[in-house]
């Protein structure tokens, strides 16, 4: 049973930073890419970032590129999302996700239908 547990959310001021963590268990972590998504109230869930199993490749939504960095520590089975220069529009529940298939190209990991396991989410609130 795959479990993903996000942490690190909170309330920050505009321009501030947070680092989200997602601890995974139940599968061969390094064989799978990972993704971060977010969902604001009344909005559809949106892709944020993805990382390959090795950590060598990353991909970002245009809205966060240059501000957010996805990384992973396979020894700890943990993926991170470093969020800098936060804006109010970044306010959302952030979810990490593990895809259905191992050894996929990172480029397929941009839509939620590619994922079968999701964390419980962690709230990020950015105030002005």
Could you please describe the fold and organization of this structure?
The protein is mainly β. Helices cover 0% and strands 48% of the residues. The protein contains no helices and eleven strands. The strands form two sheets. Strands 2, 4, 5, 6, 9, 10 and 11 form a seven-stranded mixed beta sheet that branches. Strands 1-3-8-7 form a four-stranded antiparallel beta sheet, with no helix packed on it. The chain is globular and about 40 Å long. The mean pLDDT is 96.
**Overall number of strands:** 11
Order of helices and strands: EEEEEEEEEEE
Q: How many helices? A: 0
Query: Which structural class do you get from the secondary structure elements?
Result: mainly beta
How helix-rich are the residues, as a percent range? under 10%
Low-confidence segments, ≥5 residues, pLDDT <50?
none
Rounded mean pLDDT score = 96
**What is the alpha-carbon Rg in Å?**
13 Å
Largest sheet: 7 strands, mixed
Strand content: over 45%
How far apart the termini lie comes to: 40 Å
Please tell me what the overall shape is.
globular
Please sum up the structure shown:
The protein has 128 residues and is mainly β. Helix content is 0%, strand content 48%.
